[in-house]
Amino acid sequence: MSTAEKHHFQAEIQQVLDIVIHSLYQDREVFIRELISNAADACERLRFLQTSGQAVHQPEIQPAIAVGVDEKAGTITFTDTGVGMSRAELVDNLGTIAHSGTKAFLRGLQAAEQQSGNPDVKANLIGQFGVGFYSAFMAAKKVTVNTRSHLTDETGWRWISERAAGYEIEAAPDLPRGTSIVLDLKDDAKEFTKPATVEHIIKRYSNFIQFPIELDGKRINTVQAIWARNKSEIKPEEYQEFYHYVARSQEDPLMRLHFSADAPLSIQALLFVPAHNLESLGLARTESDVHLYCRKVLIQPRAKGLLPEWLRFVKGVVDSEDMPLNIGRETMQDTSLMQKLNQVLTGRFLKFLEEQATKDAVTYDKFYGEYGRFLKEGIVTDFGHRESLGRLLRFESSHTQPKQTTSLAEYVKRMPADQKEIFGLLAPNRESAETSPYFEVFRARKIEVLFFYDPWDEFVMEHLQTFDSKPLQLAEKAELDTGDTVRNEKALSDEQAKALAGWLKEKLGDRIHEVRVSHRLIESPAVVVDHDKYITASMRRIMKSLRKEEDAQAAGKQDLEINPAHAILIQLDNARQADPQLALQVAEQLLDNAFVAAGLLEDPRQMVNRMNALLTRILESKSV
Ligand code: ADP
Ligand code: MG
Question: Whole-model pTM?
């Protein structure tokens, strides 16, 4: 007579099971990685409990993992001597979706589906997020979990599922501490009963597990904390393999930093930068993937707070002897020790990036292409590291070739003695930057200006404020004039120009705040500028795109600057007596053109009508 109790799976689990079984077929060997990773987690947790002095059932049994295959029976079994599960834990952990791996997988899947039209994304996901325990059903028609909790007053339990709608739980006394998971393999999954195949897979994914793994009694992995070894003895392949393991990635990392320090904290760290920025692929926000160890005991996987948010793309491990073992995992995040670790690690990592930039510029450029945004995020959100982050920034400039960049430090070195500010021009690309009216004075006076193509650059500038004690200044706000670089005999005199400006203000007053004679224009007839020193054209564009019309209104009207040497202005000055109606149309058009150049024209309809009227006039005057 059976005492088994039947349970249903949560709806989300059904969903995960369907995805796992149907769409990830070609990657199904990862179920081995997932079950071994769970076994290792269980062992880590046991070791943690023991090191922090808690009593466990059967303390003499060392944490370890064993895999067994049986070709005849068609099974593969994963056994660990870890923490095991109580009855309630069996229900919670294997019957609901509260735990991390599978949840992250579902979230990633949603993100991947929003980024439509890329069928590879789903398959790649499996490498990025564990699909967890349920991946067992990729290969098994029936899964049996025998488990005995480490809690001394517990007993053993058996969990059985043939998928369908649910599972059964029955008592199973006399089990040793830990968990043993038996997979009755599907007919088309019998290759997982072959020792050579399984060994190969374990080596591939789980070689760096910090507990012995045996396959049919044969030791497979060499347990070694690679980060604690001497750098000079580690082969590049070993680093790569370790990276594949921590990052769950088949790619090689872009950069690697392996260092140890004694003061102010004792630290051994092995950190990697992945070749690609997953956030830019449209996946969900990356979560920190740096694991915290103390003397090779895992204290906290994916330790939050170990690195600042803007370094969330870094993967690896940090081992610090100064971590108290008996501290609760949950409270780790807030300890001042954690903050100290964070300070040391961040400082060291920034120094590493700076060294890398000079040592291997090609790699650094790649890094900057992938992760530049994270550095900028750091400048905006993290006051403490602003200066070092500023040294890592790279921009194209009027001095560099297209696609080549300069650092702020190099820019400063090139500054002539009388230049006090570092100039930057906001533009979507090089062409627009070079044809921008704001650029004219810089070109004429051969003053270098950085090109800011990323909308974030404006905020970066605002937060950085200075570099090497030189204020950062936007080109559109620069108080520069062309000086003697251009002269034009036909130019309007100062008086004429002022009078024309007055007339323009009178005619265009409802659209513009002030009209001024400009000293910075060469080719352009006119330009709009903000008189408020905190408002820029790109901020206005952002306000518009967010439909913050009230903000834009509150920001007030802009000023118009006119070029007294430009043919349009010279002719316009004549026309306002000779042909007032034409002069007015030209004035309106002049202003609209300036708005277009600044990317700020709201409604082109009036302008188009006016243009058509002007074209008609030109053609009529020619045909007379
Ligand atoms: P994750 O490992 O990301 O939490 P899984 O689906 O892999 O998600 O596992 C679900 C949960 O089941 C684990 O968090 C753990 O609590 C429990 N579990 C799975 N395998 C074992 C095991 N071998 N020993 C103890 N607990 C386990
Ligand atoms: Mg897992």
Answer: 0.72
